[in-house]
Amino acid sequence: MPNITFLIDETPHWRRRINALQNDFPDLRIDVPEGEKHLVNSLAEADAVVAGRFPAERLEQSPKLRAIFVPFAGVNPFPLAEIKKRGIDLFNSHGAAPFVAERILALTLALLGRVAEADRKLRRGEWLRAEPEMFWHSLRDKNVVFLGAGHLAREAAALMKSLAQSLTAWGRRPRPSPPLNFDDCTSDKQAALERADLLILTAPLTPQTEGILGAAELRQLKNAFIVNVGRAQLIDEAALYNALADGTLAGFATDVHYVYKRGEDGPVMPSQLDFHELDNVVMTAHSAAHVTAARQANIDGAFANIRSWLGGGTDLQRVDLDAGY
After folding, report:
1. Does residue 50 form part of some domain?
2. Is there a domain that residue 173 lies in?
3. Which domain holds residue 57?
4. 10 Å Cβ neighbour count for 23?
5. CA dist 225 to 218, 235, 251, 279, Å?
6. Does residue 197 lie in a domain region?
7. Distance between CA atoms of 149 and 156, rounded to whole angstroms?
8. Residues of the chain with confidence (pLDDT) below 70
9. Interacting residues of 230 by C-beta distance below 8 A, sequence separation 6+
């Protein structure tokens, strides 16, 4: 049986799943190393690792490695080219998708409903008056376009299906028919942008998607709204700020950012630009999956992949290392 090394911050849920795996595969060697020396020794014998981050130097310490299991969906921090060169399989987990879809809906309704803006102003004693320029916006008359049509987009589309006027999936590859829960699909960027009253970004960050929305694309989205739960770098930062500040875009909501707090003391703003000063912006701190059930669902997805891999199954969430997702 293979050796599996877990590079995790162990929680009771992790431990329950590890114990169950060990009971079902008693000859499997499972290691949860503590300390650098233990980790290096474990990686030297590992056939598979479970990790949320695995830099290139760890690959060099893992000569026998055949598989990496990621307990969440995003894999852009992993050294994909080197993983492919080594012939290692990479698997991710989409267990949190239904929960992140809830956050997409929450961000959408907060943005269109001007909820955060009204809250901020009322705390200062300012009231949004019953005048047209102060009205909020309904999802019911919106053509919603998703950039990306994977697990997350399909879950969010299911939640929006009874509310939105139409749901379109936009992706780089042509599709013979719309994905589940969508009314239409297109690989034509121009057509997608022209159709969108609300553009929702769920795509991963890859060389093909980085900066896919620049100044020209944002001008095409005039008076539209954008919700981003993919990665900030899908949109050119300066172009986005300018389009929001000058009113080209109606509004923007996001859970992903250009700058992150990495242990610094004191406040860290999510961009070098003043998005936080704009009334037509709603932001949350990359917290869409910060739900106990979502974390557990991602862990369960990783173990489903491990069990299938150990049993020679084919129902694995395998990452396309060329596409990056």
Report:
1. yes
2. yes
3. 3-95+293-310
4. 9
5. 10, 13, 5, 13
6. yes
7. 10
8. none
9. 147, 148, 201, 202, 203, 204, 205, 209, 256
